[in-house]
Amino acid sequence: MSTHPRPAVPVHVVWDDSMLAYDFGGQHPMNPERLHLTARLARESGLLDLEGVSVTAPSVASDEDLAAVHSAEYVGAVRSISGNPDRSDAAHGLGTEDTPAFAGMHEASARLAGGSLGAAESILEGTAVRAVNFGGGMHHAARSRASGFCIYNDAAASIQRLLDRGVQRVLYVDVDAHHGDGTQSIFWDDPRVMTISLHETGMSLFPGTGFCSELGGPGAEGYAVNVALPTVAGDAAFLRAFHAIVPQLAEAFAPEVIVSQHGCDSHREDPLTNLRLSVDAQHALMLSVRELADRLCGGRWIATGGGGYALATVVPRAWTLLVGVAAGARISPTTAVPAAWRDYVRERHGIDAPALFGDGADIWWRSWEIGYDPNDDLDRTVMATRKAVFPLHGLDPWFD
């Protein structure tokens, strides 16, 4: 496969096999195999060997690091149950059906957080302009509670590190099928952070939140932005919604760094969600976020993974494309998946992985400028968000 011989900018990629220790065991959907297969595919595609791409093992975040976005009581609770995994702590969301306890939970979770903290440091120090932690994106973890397979919120930790080191405005964009509720809650009162989440409506999907009326706390109204997409939105609707909301608010907010969460559980094969996207559309969203970072932030962009539970057929393709987008590589949905990787998947899982990185989908979408259709569920959702948020930033919900 031919990839770009030199990335446009220095790229920091977080990876080490130690990240596979984040393992709830059994038949839990958050299977670390999805990370193993992603790393293997990214390497066999030549992305991790490109000049300018540095692959760095994450450190384990210290309690002090974690305390920037989590309560000391909560970190202590995770430490306690980590050494006694037969216990449960419902008050902190630990040892539940969604987020079971396991031995070594604290260290494994803190390592994922350390990966995104290292990504932030690479941006701050100028050793990288873009960074990818596809093992991160634990967006449901709140200040004092685990939720939805997420224990420590690595994306929030990276954002807080940027703020603590002098960055004035950080834009967080979340395109996971599930609402980025934990990240939103952590920065609810902070106008230095704009969180934008596009997700399947909470009327049909966990965590049941993320409606346009959720705008942020006192003094930060309009800095929490939510687009609750129709349950089976599909490619065109998701892309239309993204381009009707995100670029306009990003330009008004003028971020210095963008942090994004690229959970690929929006895919039509995902066993837990209903949005019915293709890898092609997910790739288009990655390109759009990169373009915003290039245009508004001098390229400074931290991208994380997140949800995604079709562990061999979807997740590795999506997140390898994410690494490729960050690296500026010549890899796209029409690129052939390396045969050696497909052979490995067949031997390991007994399934035939797709031959191409994409799904061959037509991702044409109708621009918002063409007009608003009040009879369309998607358009009503988008307009509700625009009416709620745009005037708070001096934008006209009908025309901007």
Per-chain topology:
Layout: E1 11-14, H1 33-44, E2 53-56, H2 63-66, H3 72-83, H4 105-125, E3 130-133, H5 154-164, E4 170-174, H6 181-186, E5 193-200, E6 224-229, H7 235-253, E7 257-261, H8 279-296, E8 301-304, H9 315-327, H10 339-349, H11 377-389
Parallel strand pairs: 1-2, 1-3, 3-8, 4-5, 4-7, 5-6, 7-8
Helix pairs in contact: 1-9, 4-5, 7-8, 7-11, 8-9
Pathway: Ketone degradation; acetoin degradation
Pfam family, one: Hist_deacetyl
Protein name: Acetoin utilization protein AcuC
Structure description:
This protein has 400 residues and is an alpha/beta fold. The protein has a single domain (11-59, 112-393), classed as Arginase, Chain A, CATH 3.40.800. The protein has eleven helices and eight strands. The chain has helices at residues 33-44, 63-66, 72-83, 105-125, 154-164, 181-186, 235-253, 279-296, 315-327, 339-349, 377-389, and strands at residues 11-14, 53-56, 130-133, 170-174, 193-200, 224-229, 257-261, 301-304. It has an eight-stranded parallel beta sheet with strand order 2-1-3-8-7-4-5-6, with helices on both faces. Strand 7, helix 8 and strand 8 (301-304) form a beta-alpha-beta unit. Helix 4 (105-125) runs parallel beside helix 5 (154-164), helix 7 packs parallel to helix 8 (279-296) and helix 7 (235-253) runs parallel beside helix 11 (377-389). The mean pLDDT is 96. This is Acetoin utilization protein AcuC. InterPro entries: AcuC, HDACs, His_deacetylse_dom, His_deacetylse_dom_sf, Ureohydrolase_dom_sf. It comes from Arthrobacter echini. Residues 28-323 form the Histone deacetylase domain. Keywords: Acetoin catabolism.
